[in-house]
Amino acid sequence: MKNRKNVVRGACALTVAVGLIPGAAMAQDSGPKLTIGGTTYTKYLWGTQRDQGALYNFTTVPGEGYGDNGIGTELELLLNAKISPQVEVNGRIHSRFNQNFWTNFGGFGGRNPPTNCTAGDCGEFDPRSNQYIKLRGMSVTLRPGYLIDSALIGATDLGQFDPFVIGRVRYIDRDNAAAIMLQGSNFDRKLTWDAARISLPRLWAGPNFSTGAFHARDAAYGFQAKYTASELFDVGGIFQYANDQEVNTEDTNFDDGRDLTPRYRNGVGGLKAGLHMGSWLDVRGAVYSSYSNADPVLSPANFGGIGGYSAVLAGHHTDQTYMLNASLNDPLDVGLSFNFQLFSIGADYVAVMASRREADVLLTEGHDGSFAFPGPSNAAYGIYKGNPTRIGYGGWTSEAQQVATINVDNDFTDFDEPMAETAIGWKGVTANPVYTNGALELGGEYSFITYNTNWQAYGNDQESLNNTTYPGTELDSGVGHNFRTAYQPFQDKKTHLVALRAKYVVDVLKGIDVFGKFKYIHETDKRLNDPRFLPFQSGACAGGGVACDNTLVNEYSAGNSTSGVYSNPSVITNSQGETGYQFKPFDNIGDDDRLLDYTTFTAGAGYQFTDDLYVSASYSKFFADLLDGNTAFQAYNNHEMASGKHNKNQVLVKARYILSGVEFGLEGQYAFGTFRPDFGDGFVVQYADDTIAADHGVAVGSRGFTNRNGGWNSLEERNFEQMRVKAFMKAQF
Fold first, then answer.
1. Chain mean position to CA 10
2. Is the pTM of this model over 0.85?
3. CA nearest 523: which of 345, 631, 350, 371?
4. Which of the residue ranges 19-33, 152-166, 244-258, 643-657 would you say has the lowest mean pLDDT?
5. For 175-191, b where at least 16 C-beta lie within 10 A, e where not — what string?
6. What share of the chain is helix, strand, coil (3-state, %, to 5)?
7. CA nearest neighbour of 158 among 168, 148, 145
8. What is residue 567's three-state secondary structure?
9. Could you read off the pLDDT of 152-183 as tens digits, one per residue?
10. Which of 80, 295, 407, 617 has a 20 to 30 Å separation from 429 between CA atoms?
């Protein structure tokens, strides 16, 4: 019996083996295939700021650290497995720079418990410095061949959607978003569509940069479709609904589970159409409408006056955005083309999943990254002790990208990368002519921008400034446009921008690239423009060494006044025996006026020395003649005042070298310049004592004044100088 069973088993095994032979042969051609590749990236930073908090020049994330010195290496492994013609698996295993300096010597040792970790001092006890490797970008793609074209389950960069609604995440976390995504088409692909369920990022996609305590079910749902009727016309639509929920604390019966209650909801819909008249004319238009509703109990009900940080607005808001683009491709057949854009982005337009960077939604090149923060040295709150600039005096070295969100992301960037700025509230027109003739390329721009945020008292003169639903973030003061500031309580602003760019290849040797740029911005902002919003009644500060009468409060509506923001000065006697006001009383609507004339020139040349090596050098000059309020306004009490004349210079050297699959790059910068302050009159000059000198890095006896919050503003001419270098090596395998 036993022998019989063995014979049967042997026969079955032989049958199976014979049956698998064709399959085995087939598997050699079409069976599962695993491909492993990767990149190693080494970055070198050197700079005279001597910061070593992390291997990035800039971040706003508390506790993350930033720096301009150090060397670090990343490793990225790229995995691709084609299981069958219908199934594909992709993934990344990636380390990160963070605080992984070479000087960590493998990440051993360090502070334990790991608290206040910067500069790698927590060593192996903190994931930012222990050389950990993370799983990223894991996805499975299915192509069943019926009903749908594909289904993706897992990580995606969201790049196939619309930056006004659902946009690509910043490059360093490009595929950190996770979704279930379906794609399909009908009518010979004249109709295409995408549908997605995207898990909301708990770290930033909601009020106060959070989706609350219960986040596992929080998601955004998106759908878009496009119908291409012909080569001449297409039309499409997109919709997104984000739902952030919390456990309902009023549900005390646990026997049947727990109910959920909404914390934040956001809906955005858009319609788009394109008209394509052959190769010479292309017209595209879009309209978007948004709905934003934040629960006032589970998230902030307001932002308490002129401050506040949040990725979205508080309370309930609806608004629209309109875009119209037209391109004329050399209509006169002389090498001259034209691009035009009309735009209006609503003040209350909110799309929590819109692109935060790397998606320039406007044709204008906008402001420069060179002056990105309120003060002359790019320090966010530079009037306070121990608050040095992060990105440095040089700022970022290019023009800005505009994004349709206040949730702007410039974190973990270096000075050689573009700066993103919010365009919420912008409306206007841009004209962009482009001319090419042989080796000559010319491009120009004229933009006129006004603002849907031009209002008084946040657009509601019956409410207190302390009851605003608009987060002010850094507020809009200083030389440039503070990159994530869309709102201030009083605004009456207009911007004119003119730019000209040129490039010419000189026919010498292998050809020398000569390039240049001119840019001029004229920007005005009257801010508070109605006397009824002045903080105190006329005569409250009589002068002559007499203290102000703080009982003479001026109310712009019943119970509401700006005196809580713009309090009166004290009478002081300085070290020279002079008596007067600590700063000018805010008694004139011109005290907060802003007028900027900003001019920049760039000239440079580049040369391809060998097939592998390209080097360029350039010089840029920045002039800014700025009136940004006087000591009565004092840059919203928190920032370095920037009124005066700015003269900045930048020398830039770039190099790129390719060697058999390894790329080397270098950018070195020397920035230097002066700032001559002009803060007006109406106050007594103070002179720095030993404490002020030590706290603010100024000379004992130098002139300045202390503002409402105790911060020091220097009245002396300031001289700035900064050197910095970034070099990298990137090897792909």
1. 68
2. yes
3. 371
4. 19-33
5. bbbbbebbbbeeeeeee
6. 10, 45, 45
7. 168
8. coil
9. 999 998 989 999 999 987 766 667 889 999 99
10. 407
